[in-house]
């Protein structure tokens, strides 16, 4: 690779390795799963990098010595050769390019022009060979011969490049016809499974074709091919490229790009026969850490389509009852799996698709976790291409709301002189109003946010200044309020008196609802008149639906309160808080029970008064006037004009005297109706149904949002794992620990070890640069890669080392295994040190 070549190029949309100019790469490297964009042709040296691979010097010299013979074709990585054959259509005996193929060698074009090469070599503009490869080649006479041979073929490589360009630029035709397939040497053919069978399921030339067509015979050969995986011996392009006789490369060089992009064909027989070298069985039996029991494989052969048409699977899926799943899951888990130590990051085997559908034949694969699958209602109806990054995450409004709440909860006063009270510390005053209103409780009152040292939770403390407790039973009356657990009432936890403020104060401890405001602040706040270009600002008219929402919520609160033999006593705008959009809660219940204990009226009277106060509240809010109830005629006229008769009728019922002649829902019904909360609820039943329905919709939307966040948290967990593993300094072999002779785990973490792939993968995901060397910050690419890693797909990616000298082809599946086993190693190491 020439200096300045982008190390990690922005991938095509499908995140497949760029085949670029090297049809070579398209054919010899694992076949990309989707077409590569033409953009990669702007990176002429990307293909050069594909020719190199990780190679130890020992492997290198081995390859070098063997490359001196023309019969040394099999010394190329046999697994890579197998892959090449699988992905490259061929037509033995009918190859118009056959005569030329001995000249063309993709590995030559990849390998020539090392940093040690001469200037004349550089003139050929052939991509450089990895430095370490060239050096080891020159270190022995055989290697030197190889290098010489390589140089002599450099020109041929350039020719090859031109020939390839011609192929690309030529008229589109049947890609299969353009496939070069020179007859192999007898030994090679004996050892090679015909790729026509692999690709098309059969070979039309079976009678004359020299390759093996019976897969069972393949395994009997002495030179049984190894599968290509990350543990396979590396391929060194230098030696291969110096050998001009490497016809297999030539063959692949003539492959049409169409052929390279052909879909993988998996013959039916391969799905069932275990002995058949199917795509699945090509995975190494021992790779990464096979002891990983709880790792659920992603089997691409069993795609979503297969699952959907599998009647067994469908039956299982249909009979699956999510509401009884937990017991089923635990049964499955206990019977089928060894339960190990709890690992928060470990994949839960009981939640995998295989566990749910364990009896479904062929339903082995885990769900396609890499798909963002829409759940719940789709409020926007946008098409896939219209969606943006926002669609992956929580909506801005919800995020902002939650973040504000979190921020306000964390607020502390820097120079606070407010003392801690009992177990409550870090008191922060929420009462910002300069005017203190004594009329409500008869005492000046303050509201503080505080943290309890008992449970670490936040609470709101309401303090009534200079309160003198004359009767012990008064404060005990707050006990009854602890039992009121209603969504429209701020829950009371305790009440006590204190002298911590220097006076005798009554403290009522309630739930804290961050970023809430009172209905008085919401609807009656004095705001300066705003004018926009001479027009008055939009009116503060409160929509009727909001008013019905308030009515229903407070009615629900009153039902709970009255049902417990209590009365709210205080239903006024400043003592009702708005905790989120249209969500209100009664906030000062129980206080008057303590403060006015001796002067309390009979309960039915107080309960009737609650309804009256509710009627006045709605009347005032609807009129936008805190004292609207003082002029009933005028206020009701406004209601008549601005709202429906139904609302007017409801308000009238609430504010009317105790004995009414009709229920609010049936004004024409004669007779006296007892005025209580049950009658009222019956009267507004239709509105309750409407409000209930809109609440259900809101809940669905939130669940949908939560589901999306679940995806994000899955990605976050994956990233956490990756970062736990990547570049751990204490496990990096390049950083020698002085005095340490023990063969530590460092070798596992060295640049030649398994974890190296994870490091390169991190670069591939996050440190990509474009053809101009500019950083690529593509969220879709990151999500795409991480989701595929999580799913462990078979798709392969090309990882380039930081020195741009090595290229690794590795599948997400292998990366996932590597990540899982590395992380498990870490956990084990942590446990050992803890012993
Ligand atoms: N439980 C609570 N959780 C969070 N914030 C609260 C809670 N109770 C009250 N607040 C906030 O504290 C502030 C003061 O509340 P308070 O009930 O004293 O209202 P106020 O407008 O000061 O009424 P008044 O002056 O008539 O007593 C309001 O902004 C309110 O939103």
UniProtKB/TrEMBL annotation:
Regulatory subunit of the poly(A)-nuclease (PAN) deadenylation complex, one of two cytoplasmic mRNA deadenylases involved in mRNA turnover. PAN specifically shortens poly(A) tails of RNA and the activity is stimulated by poly(A)-binding protein PAB1. PAN deadenylation is followed by rapid degradation of the shortened mRNA tails by the CCR4-NOT complex. Deadenylated mRNAs are then degraded by two alternative mechanisms, namely exosome-mediated 3'-5' exonucleolytic degradation, or deadenlyation-dependent mRNA decaping and subsequent 5'-3' exonucleolytic degradation by XRN1. Residues 188-216 form the C3H1-type domain. One of its GO terms (cellular component) is PAN complex. GO terms for biological process: mRNA processing; nuclear-transcribed mRNA poly(A) tail shortening. It is found in: Cytoplasm. Keywords: ATP-binding, Coiled coil, Cytoplasm, Metal-binding, mRNA processing, Nucleotide-binding, Zinc, Zinc-finger. Residues 1-10, 94-105 have a biased composition (Basic residues). A zinc finger (C3H1-type) spans 188-216. The keyword Cell membrane does not apply. SUPFAM superfamilies: Protein kinase-like (PK-like). Residues 686-724 form a coiled coil. Residues 430-725 form the Protein kinase domain. InterPro entries: Kinase-like_dom_sf, PAN3, Pan3_CK, Prot_kinase_dom, Znf_CCCH. Residues 11-20 have a biased composition (Pro residues). It comes from the Eukaryota. The gene is PAN3. This is PAN2-PAN3 deadenylation complex subunit PAN3. Residues 106-118 have a biased composition (Polar residues). It comes from Paraphaeosphaeria sporulosa. GO terms for molecular function: ATP binding; poly(A) binding; protein kinase activity; zinc ion binding. Homodimer. Forms a heterotrimer with a catalytic subunit PAN2 to form the poly(A)-nuclease (PAN) deadenylation complex. Interacts (via PAM-2 motif) with poly(A)-binding protein PAB1 (via PABC domain), conferring substrate specificity of the enzyme complex. Residues 725-835 are annotated as: Knob domain. Belongs to the protein kinase superfamily. PAN3 family. Contains a pseudokinase domain. The protein kinase domain is predicted to be catalytically inactive because some of the residues important for catalytic activity are substituted and it lacks the equivalent of the binding site for a peptide substrate. However, it has retained an ATP-binding site and ATP-binding is required for mRNA degradation, stimulating the activity of the PAN2 nuclease in vitro.
């Amino acid at each position: 690779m020439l200096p300045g070549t982008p190390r990690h190029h922005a991938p095509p949309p499908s995140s497949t390795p760029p085949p670029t100019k090297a049809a070579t790469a398209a054919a010899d490297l694992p076949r990309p799963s989707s077409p590569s964009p033409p953009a990669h042709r702007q990176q002429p040296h990307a293909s050069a990098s594909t020719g190199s691979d990780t190679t130890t010097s020992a492997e290198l010299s081995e390859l070098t010595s063997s490359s001196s013979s023309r019969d040394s074709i099999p010394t190329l990585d046999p697994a890579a050769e197998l892959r090449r054959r699988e992905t490259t259509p061929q037509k033995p005996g009918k190859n118009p390019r056959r005569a030329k193929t001995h000249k063309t060698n993709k590995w030559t074009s990849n390998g020539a022009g090392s940093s040690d090469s001469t200037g004349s070599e550089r003139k050929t503009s052939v991509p450089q060979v990895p430095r370490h490869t060239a050096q080891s080649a020159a270190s022995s006479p055989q290697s030197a011969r190889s290098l010489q041979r390589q140089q002599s073929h450099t020109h041929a490589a350039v020719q090859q490049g031109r020939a390839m360009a011609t192929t690309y630029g030529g008229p589109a035709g049947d890609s299969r016809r353009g496939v070069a397939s020179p007859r192999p040497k007898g030994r090679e053919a004996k050892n090679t499974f015909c790729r026509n069978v692999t690709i098309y399921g059969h070979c039309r030339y079976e009678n004359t074709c020299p390759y093996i067509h019976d897969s069972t015979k393949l395994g009997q050969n002495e030179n049984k091919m190894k599968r290509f995986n990350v543990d396979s011996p590396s391929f060194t392009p230098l030696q291969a490229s110096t050998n001009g006789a490497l016809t297999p490369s030539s063959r692949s060089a003539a492959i049409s790009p169409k052929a390279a992009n052909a879909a993988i064909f998996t013959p039916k027989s391969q799905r069932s026969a275990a002995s058949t070298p199917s795509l699945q069985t090509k995975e190494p039996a021992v790779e990464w850490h096979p002891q990983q029991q709880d790792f659920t494989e992603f089997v691409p052969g069993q795609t979503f389509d297969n699952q959907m048409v599998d009647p067994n699977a469908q039956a299982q899926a249909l009979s699956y009852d999510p509401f009884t799943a937990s017991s089923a899951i635990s049964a499955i888990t206990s019977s089928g799996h060894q339960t190990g130590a709890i690992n928060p990051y470990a994949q839960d085997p009981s939640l995998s698709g295989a566990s749910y559908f364990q009896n479904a034949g062929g339903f082995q694969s885990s769900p396609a976790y890499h798909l963002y699958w829409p759940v719940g209602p789709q409020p926007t109806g946008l098409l896939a291409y219209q969606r943006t990054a926002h669609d992956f995450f929580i909506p801005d409004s919800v995020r902002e709301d939650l973040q504000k709440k979190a921020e306000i909860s964390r607020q502390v006063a820097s120079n606070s002189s407010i003392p801690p009270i009992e177990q409550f510390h870090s008191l922060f005053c929420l009462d910002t109003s300069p005017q203190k209103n004594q009329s409500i409780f008869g005492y000046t009152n303050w509201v503080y946010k505080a943290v309890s040292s008992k449970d670490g939770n936040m609470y709101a403390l309401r303090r009534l200044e200079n309160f003198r407790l004359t009767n012990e039973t008064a404060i005990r009356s707050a006990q009854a309020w602890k039992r009121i657990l209603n969504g429209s009432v701020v829950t009371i936890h305790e009440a006590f008196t204190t002298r911590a403020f220097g006076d005798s104060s009554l403290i009522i401890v309630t739930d804290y609802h961050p970023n809430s405001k009172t209905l008085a602040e919401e609807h009656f706040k004095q705001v300066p008149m705003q004018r926009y270009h001479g027009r008055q600002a939009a009116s503060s008219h409160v929509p009727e639906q909001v008013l019905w929402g308030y009515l229903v919520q407070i009615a629900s609160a009153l039902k709970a309160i009255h049902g417990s033999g209590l009365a709210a006593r205080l239903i006024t705008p400043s003592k009702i808080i708005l905790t989120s959009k249209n969500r209100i809660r009664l906030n000062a219940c129980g206080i008057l029970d303590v403060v006015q204990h001796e002067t309390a009226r009979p309960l039915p009277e107080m309960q009737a008064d609650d309804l009256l106060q509710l009627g006045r509240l709605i009347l005032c809010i609807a009129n936008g006037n805190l004292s609207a109830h003082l002029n009933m005629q005028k206020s009701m006229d406004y209601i008549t004009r601005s709202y429906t008769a139904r609302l007017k009728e409801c308000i009238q019922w609430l504010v009317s005297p105790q004995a009414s002649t009709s229920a609010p829902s049936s004004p024409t019904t004669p007779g006296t109706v007892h005025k209580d909360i049950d009658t009222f609820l019956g009267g507004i039943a239709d509105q309750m149904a409407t409000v209930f329905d809109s609440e259900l919709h809101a809940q669905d939307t939130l669940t949908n949002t939560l589901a999306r966040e679940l995806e994000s948290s899955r990605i976050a967990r994956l990233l956490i794992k990756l970062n736990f593993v990547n570049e751990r300094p204490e496990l990096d072999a390049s950083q020698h620990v002085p005095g340490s002779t023990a063969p530590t785990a460092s070798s596992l973490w060295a640049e030649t070890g398994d974890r190296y792939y994870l490091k390169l993968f991190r670069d591939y995901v996050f440190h990509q640069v474009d053809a101009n060397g500019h950083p690529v910050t593509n969220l879709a690419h990151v999500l795409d890669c991480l989701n595929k890693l999580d799913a462990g797909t078979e798709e392969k990616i090309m990882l380039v080392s930081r020195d741009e000298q090595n290229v690794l082809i590795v599948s997400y599946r292998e990366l996932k295994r590597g990540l899982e086993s590395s992380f498990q190693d870490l956990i084990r190491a942590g446990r050992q040190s803890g012993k």
